[in-house]
């Protein structure tokens, strides 16, 4: 993972994007490692992929600001930058204040501990006593905790007449798509398929493996027998070519 000091100095001098890309790719495992550790402590609604994207922002910032003359290894420097970026972005998404989040965690931990010791459901009185708070305070804390729970829109609920319907079907959509919008989207899909078919075979293969098969850049590299860095370059090239073809096709479509 370590990047040679000569490479850092060359990048500091030239700010070459290829060198920057090489450095970033070398430290992506550190981002995945930190995201994996933090994912265990956060709600399930925040996926590890989201945390990794936050961490990459921290990694890019670290690459830009790191100076090897300070005598600190980049791994140690980037560790705090990446971790801080993940935590900062999560706090922006989280609508519960930090102090309340800590109290909710304490509530859950205390409940689990007491249930493990007693082997049965713990009463509110026992739980409040163990936490050193009153019953009204416990009920208020439990209400805040309930706001963090998510329900699936596919979950069914029984109406007064016994009919079962999905939660999602009972939510009114004020922005229901106009039929003309649907036609435009279908035209867009047709243009996209046509543009992809016109790409070179290697570009189509990269896009197919990445978006259809869901492979990582490293896995695609193994399939194509090239480096992960090379796959990243091929992916960028394919996307740029596809964008140009779509722009050209869209312009012709408007003329017609």
From TrEMBL:
InterPro entries: RNA_pol_sigma-70_dom, RNA_pol_sigma70, RNA_pol_sigma70_r2, RNA_pol_sigma70_r4, RNA_pol_sigma_FliA_WhiG, RNA_pol_sigma_r2, RNA_pol_sigma_r3/r4-like. One of its GO terms (cellular component) is DNA-directed RNA polymerase complex. SUPFAM superfamilies: Sigma2 domain of RNA polymerase sigma factors, Sigma3 and sigma4 domains of RNA polymerase sigma factors. CDD domains: Sigma70_r4. One of its GO terms (biological process) is DNA-templated transcription initiation. Transmembrane segments: none annotated. PROSITE patterns: SIGMA70_2. This is DNA-directed RNA polymerase specialized sigma subunit. It comes from Pelotomaculum thermopropionicum (strain DSM 13744 / JCM 10971 / SI). The lineage of its organism: Bacteria, Bacillati, Bacillota, Clostridia, Eubacteriales. The gene is FliA.
């Amino acid at each position: 993972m370590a990047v040679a000091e000569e490479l850092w100095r060359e990048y500091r001098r030239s700010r070459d994007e290829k060198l920057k890309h090489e450095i970033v790719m070398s430290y992506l495992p550190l981002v995945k490692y930190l995201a994996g550790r933090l994912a265990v402590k956060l709600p399930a609604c925040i996926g590890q992929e989201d945390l990794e994207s936050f961490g990459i922002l921290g990694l890019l910032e670290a690459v830009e600001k790191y100076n090897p003359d300070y005598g600190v290894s980049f791994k140690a420097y980037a560790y705090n930058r990446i971790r801080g970026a993940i935590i900062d972005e999560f706090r922006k998404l989280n609508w519960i204040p930090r102090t309340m989040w800590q109290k909710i965690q304490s509530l859950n931990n205390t409940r689990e501990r007491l249930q493990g010791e007693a082997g049965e459901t713990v009463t509110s009185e026992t739980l409040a006593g163990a936490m050193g708070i009153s019953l009204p305070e416990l009920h208020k804390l439990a209400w805040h905790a309930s706001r963090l729970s998510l329900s699936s829109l596919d979950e069914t609920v029984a109406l007064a007449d016994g009919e079962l319907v999905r939660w999602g079907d009972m939510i009114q959509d004020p922005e229901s798509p106009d039929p003309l919008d649907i036609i435009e989207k279908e035209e867009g899909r047709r243009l996209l398929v046509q543009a992809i078919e016109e790409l070179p075979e290697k570009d189509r293969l990269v896009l197919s493996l990445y978006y259809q098969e869901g492979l990582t850049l490293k896995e695609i590299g193994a399939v194509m027998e090239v480096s992960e860095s090379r796959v990243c370059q091929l992916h960028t090239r394919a996307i740029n070519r596809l964008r140009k073809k779509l722009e050209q096709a869209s312009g012709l479509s408007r003329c017609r």
